[in-house]
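Friendly challenge for the regulars: who can give me the structure tokens for this chain first? No prize, just bragging rights.
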Amino acid sequence: YIFSVVAVLLILIACINYANVSTFVSLRRSREIGVRKINRGSRNKLLFHFFGEAFQQTALGCILAMALVELLRLQFNQLTGKSILIPYLEPWFAASLLGLVLLTTLLAGAYPAILISNFKPVDAFRGKVNSGKGQTYFRTVLLVFQFSISVGLIITTLTMYRQVGYMQDKNLGYEIENLLYLNLDDSQKLNY
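First reply, four minutes later:
Bragging rights claimed.
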């Protein structure tokens, strides 16, 4: 459960980061967007194009992540003493992975796609495309939220690390090696 929560938070941080970087880059691509709009590029076509870019990058990231998982899985199993197998051929796993890629694409690509598709071609060619005050405020809120999640993850990691160290080093008040263990049957147990 802990790894799942951390994974969701990391994906959320990545989505926010992608949205911020993509909107910044889109300001530099304003002339390209202007040409697309002039060449009968409807708003829906632009939305589809930029969601396609987000999907392409998300799918590539997923493939890279799965390759890294396979490369590091044996070392992780040795470190944890577990035998974790990944069910690549199971239909539910493939459906879950595809759903995760689509959800990540939607989260990461929605804000940039909507912002980019609202550019006016005339302003794009004049170089007067800027993010309005509301968009700047929204990106600032996203950055603060992203930073807060990162700080929270770091604090939680340090706290858990110290707690595990405390549990391993704490004097329990008895010698573990000098314990005597007796197995009693029901007739020998005290009834309270």
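The mean pLDDT is 81. Helices lie at 2-28, 30-38, 43-80, 91-117, 121-126, 133-169. Your move, everyone else.
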